[in-house]
Amino acid sequence: MVNKVAPGFLGSVLSHFPEGLVVVSGSSGKSTTTKMLVTILEAHGKRIFTNPSTANISQGLTSALLERASLTGRIDADLAVLEMDEGHGALLSPQFQARMVVLTNVMTDQIDRFHDTRKVLAMLDTIASRASERLVLNGDDALLDSLAADVNDAVARFGVSSEVFAALPRGLGYAATTDARDTAGTLVTGVAGRSATIRWDGADHEVTLPARGVHYAVDAAAAIAAARELLGTSFDPAVAVAAVSAMPAVFGRGEVVTVRGKQVEFVLVQNPASFQLNVDELEEGLDQVLVAMGSDVADPSYFWPVDASRIGRARIVSGSKANELALQLIYQGVQVDDIEPNLPAALDRFLALPEPASGIKTIVFTADSMRRTRTHLGLAE
């Protein structure tokens, strides 16, 4: 309603932060990168306005602003760091001027909305054009790197070393990438579970990640690269490393919660690449796994390129696409004990199981099932 009654509200508020606006966008990694960047900046004493990761479209952004804005339409913060959905960010771009834009990657994602990577690239190009000082992008993504041609002097890149790059899955969203080890100023040089080595200014730094996997290390590199540019000589490597290393998981993304007296790990998968990367990081031989796919997946065959065999055994497969997902898992050699499309019923049965013989209870879900799971279990976002 606010956007209709006062269409200039969002742009007016965003243009009045003393140290400007930072926009984070891309196909994957927006939420974690945003949270990491905010954490680093706050550790350096900055007052930051940011949006919840579920509020990255125009209505959500406006609601987040309304909650903090004074009667004069101002927010008491030094700068804003906002995650923006690719499509909504492009639509909103005429209303804001960003000091910096951070772009994570371009993948085949949300095929019901963004059926073509070139379409996504065009949206991100529109958002990138609003950066007045700096564009920070994933130098391993050739599509993103093409956006830097006209503003190369104002670009900072993050990426991974050739050894780390070689381990990334092909054909699942990384096919368009090229090794950026010669151009990235912030480089992931090693990853083992929740431990990563990130190099900048010629020095290696050991960082603890909020969740397992190379994709979280890349998010950390993106956040550090952005913070280095924003803070300049005030950037303190030790402060940045300590801030990221102490950060909890962004909800649903490797988050471990206690529900009904049971420890449960949530693993969010949003596209084939994130599905593969997250499944690859699961502990082998997990005794209790629930896998759920919801209505956010328009066509379950989208996930068939993923090798989910590491799951090993799924106690329950649930969600509105439970039958299609179970078929994929069975074909890939996963033992499926039960199929229960009703997610609340499946969750109740799963949590009622006795303690696992190995590992902890693990729920692998898509975004729709994540939201429904959190609602059913009474978990705040």
UniProtKB/TrEMBL annotation:
Ligase recorded as keyword: yes
Molecular function per GO: ligase activity
The UniProt record lists the keyword Ligase: yes
Highest taxon, organism lineage: Bacteria
Keywords: Ligase
Domain Lipid II isoglutaminyl synthase (glutamine-hydrolyzing) subunit MurT C-terminal: 268-349
SUPFAM superfamilies per UniProt: MurD-like peptide ligases, catalytic domain (SSF53623)
Listed InterPro entries: Mur-like_cat_sf (IPR036565), Mur_ligase_cen (IPR013221), MurT_C (IPR013564)
Mur ligase central domain boundaries: 24-227
Protein name: Glutamate ligase
Organism: Naasia aerilata
Taxonomic placement: Bacteria, Bacillati, Actinomycetota, Actinomycetes, Micrococcales
